[in-house]
């Protein structure tokens, strides 16, 4: 299957799960806290606002290849029929773009690049 041809919102759906799982493992190992505290901490990394800020950081640092930029743009520009909760539409779309590239790299089984991206996102949030 050519993962580039998948609906970008499908890629974002996968990417959301990938980011959530990575962040949960990261904060569990970092904090060793109770679930409520873990949930509060996880929101710093996986909220649409945080994802949009991470995407801007990645753009500023020319992190993406041309192929990856295409996936990000498709994810960002995809028309979603669900309403963004607790954020504006531009922030929601940027977060969808970031999730789309995460989903794409995961489905492509490009583990090295995916891990590098996830680590960069976490580091960026930690530094804010």
Structure explained in plain terms:
It contains 6 helices and no strands. The protein is globular, with a radius of gyration of 14 Å. The chain has a single domain, classed as Orthogonal Bundle (Ribonuclease iii, N-terminal Endonuclease Domain, Chain A), CATH 1.10.1520. The protein is mostly helical.
Assembly context of the chains: single chain
CATH class division: Mainly Alpha
Give the CATH architecture.
Orthogonal Bundle
Structural class: mainly alpha
As residue ranges, the low-confidence spans are none
CATH topology: Ribonuclease iii, N-terminal Endonuclease Domain, Chain A
Q: Estimate the global geometry from the Cα principal axes.
A: globular
Say how many strands there are. 0
Radius of gyration: 14 Å
So, the CATH homologous superfamily? Ribonuclease III domain
Average pLDDT figure = 90
List the secondary-structure elements in sequence, H or E.
HHHHHH
Beta-strand portion reads under 5%
Query: How many domains make up the 3D coordinates?
Result: 1
Largest sheet: none
Please tally the helical runs, counting DSSP H or I stretches of 4 or more residues. 6
Measure the end-to-end span. 38 Å
In helices, the fraction of residues equals: over 70%
């Amino acid at each position: 299957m050519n993962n580039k041809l998948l609906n970008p919102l499908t890629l974002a759906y996968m990417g959301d799960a990938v980011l959530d799982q990575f962040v949960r493992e990261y904060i569990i190992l970092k904090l060793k806290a109770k679930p409520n505290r873990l949930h509060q901490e996880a929101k710093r990394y996986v909220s649409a606002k945080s994802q949009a800020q991470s995407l801007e950081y990645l753009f500023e640092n020319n992190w993406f290849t041309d192929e990856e930029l295409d996936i990000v743009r498709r994810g960002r520009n995809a028309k979603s029929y669900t309403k963004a909760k607790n954020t504006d539409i531009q922030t929601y779309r940027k977060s969808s773009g970031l999730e789309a590239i995460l989903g794409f790299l995961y489905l492509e089984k490009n583990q090295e690049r995916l891990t590098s991206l996830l680590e960069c996102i976490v580091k960026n949030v930690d530094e804010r």
